[in-house]
Amino acid sequence: MTPQKNVLAVIMGGGRGTRLHPLTAERCKPAVPLAGKYRLVDIPISNCINSDINRIFLLTQFHTASLHRHIQNTFHFDPFGGGFVDILSAEQTEKSLDWYQGTADAVRRNLQHFRNFKHEYVLILSGDQLYRMDFGKILEEHIASGADVSIAAIPFPISKVEGLGLMRVQDNLAISEFVEKPKDPKVIESLAISDKLQAKLSSPTGEKHCLASMGIYVFNRKALADALDNDMKDFGKEVIPALLGKKKLFAHVFEGYWEDIGTVKAFFDANLALAQPLPPFNFFDQSAPIYTQDRYLPPSKINRCTFDYVVFGDGSIIEDSTITHSVLGIRSIVHAGSVLKDVVMMGSDYYESEAQMKENAAAGRPNLGIGPNSSIEHSIIDKNARIGAGVKLSALGKADGTYPHGIIIRDGVLVVPKGVVVPNGFSL
Asked: Which of 44, 102, 36 is closest to 71 using CA atoms?
């Protein structure tokens, strides 16, 4: 068997997703829409498929309904390849009656399910990161080095490592120390990689680099069982550091684009970056495509509009509007006279019929999408939102907090949550 065929992939669905709230008010983190037509979970699953790894477990426990629908409608494998994406939600057993207590606890409680499948390696991934990686490379290095555990690590200049978990490595990439989010400049300086490793980077600079953990791990089967034979709850904070000196730990250096989409601001910035002329993440790379649900939507219809750096999802209808540096999701509807700047609009799950729009008019309720003559800036418009005519929304100059009609400003970004109705003429 090839190494890839001897691997089980495990994607961590995350906890309550409080840092991404209100985007996670009705869905789990992996189900959050991304880049106009995808979901966050599409990224790790696509990376697995493109790496010839097709046995994938997804561990979740909060707001899983939309994630279940997406997985069931998207990832279908032929019966001869043995592939699957299996969702494992937290379940009560004779040994435990509570929720997953952390990443390590979630994997520990599902080892019984993994044992039913032949494997020698377990690839553990996060469900809320944007990157493209060939997992075959980390597997090859893992086997060649004789490692028990391999950890994907990304080089960061020492001036930009604040808030990251760093590791000290030897020239052969063996890991000798972990430091969780150090702040002392002297400690950070001491964790810088050697000149020899610095010279091997694809784009070495004059500034020293440290290696930060990406939260991507390859475990030998036995090493994983040994590592989880305890009550530790988290891989990054507890399990991995506890293995130092007991198991062989090696780093795999990854130098591509990688973004941890754990906060509203990170989500907002990562989406808007895709509207740049040369985005840091390339969804147009057909050598390693990102897969998602095929919805059979019509092409978008654009009438008398002015655009500059905009991404459109399928099935959108945009009328006589000015849109700048924005990402609009599937079935986005923007009526005439509207102006959007720095906006992530997730679109809608359905189109409204003429009868439904008549009912809306009779009830004084806006239709799905953005009404005429509205102005929106520096905002996220979640799915199925209804924004009336003449509405003005902007986060600029306003404090984080909850505002009328369910609008929330978080991390300096205005968010209209899923299904919220903003009446005609409202201004914020």
From this structure: 44
